[in-house]
């Protein structure tokens, strides 16, 4: 049987995750994650659950991770701290501050998108949910539904954004999904029939073109 640290490293490679990225995603310090992936400590139950959620995409991977966690070799390792030790306290605080900064940027950007929609007098629902699917804004143009996904960090998780758009089109019955970014859509190389990337400054022009296309299609 593979060791717990080996299983975690292999799953990280499959997900193309670095130690610092994994630490941010599961709420540990980079130092704590480093000790886990190098076999110096083992995660607590709550951390194991987060690891499974972030790293495992199948029951087989979950079972492999659990088996390694419950092995005798892993049982002999000291538990990783939930919060970093004093030596890593500053790094942990900085990580949380970065999280809050990103969260604040996201909220402020969504407000900027809402202002643009209000100025153009578009009919929309904010934080629209249906079943397990949700979108930042759902704009109604006649009978067409346009989902708007706000992305304040242009280059983060582009592939995830594209997959999200495909799901939204299916579950929300959207005619189109627009991913609104502050600027730099020209630098995004990802292409998909399920989504269009739009700079905030171009949003209302893009929605207006959709309106014109609707009117022409209806013969008006």
Automatic annotation (TrEMBL):
CDD domains: HTH_XRE (cd00093). InterPro entries: Cro/C1-type_HTH (IPR001387), Lambda_DNA-bd_dom_sf (IPR010982). It comes from the Bacteria. It holds the Pfam family HTH_31. PROSITE patterns: HTH_CROC1 (PS50943). Residues 8-63 form the HTH cro/C1-type domain. This is Helix-turn-helix transcriptional regulator. It comes from Thalassobacterium sedimentorum.
């Amino acid at each position: 049987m593979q060791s717990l640290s080996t299983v975690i490293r292999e799953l990280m490679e499959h997900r193309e995750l670095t130690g610092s990225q994994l630490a941010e995603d599961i709420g540990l310090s980079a130092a704590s994650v480093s000790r886990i992936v190098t076999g110096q400590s083992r995660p607590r139950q709550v951390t194991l659950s987060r690891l499974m959620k972030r790293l495992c995409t199948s029951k087989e991977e979950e079972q492999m991770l659990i088996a390694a966690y419950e092995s005798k070799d892993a049982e002999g390792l000291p538990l990783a701290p939930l919060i970093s030790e004093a030596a890593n306290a500053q790094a942990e605080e900085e990580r949380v501050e970065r999280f809050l900064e990103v969260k604040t940027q996201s909220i402020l950007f969504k407000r900027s998108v809402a202002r643009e929609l209000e100025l153009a007098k578009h009919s929309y629902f904010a934080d629209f949910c249906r079943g397990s699917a949700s979108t930042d804004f759902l704009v109604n143009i006649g009978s067409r539904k346009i989902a708007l996904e706000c992305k304040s960090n242009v280059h983060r998780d582009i592939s995830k954004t594209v997959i999200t758009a495909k799901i939204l089109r299916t579950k929300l019955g959207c005619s189109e999904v627009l991913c609104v970014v502050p600027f730099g859509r020209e630098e995004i190389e990802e292409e998909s029939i399920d989504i269009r990337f739009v700079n905030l400054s171009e949003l209302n022009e893009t929605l207006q073109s959709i309106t014109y296309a609707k009117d022409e299609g209806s013969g008006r």
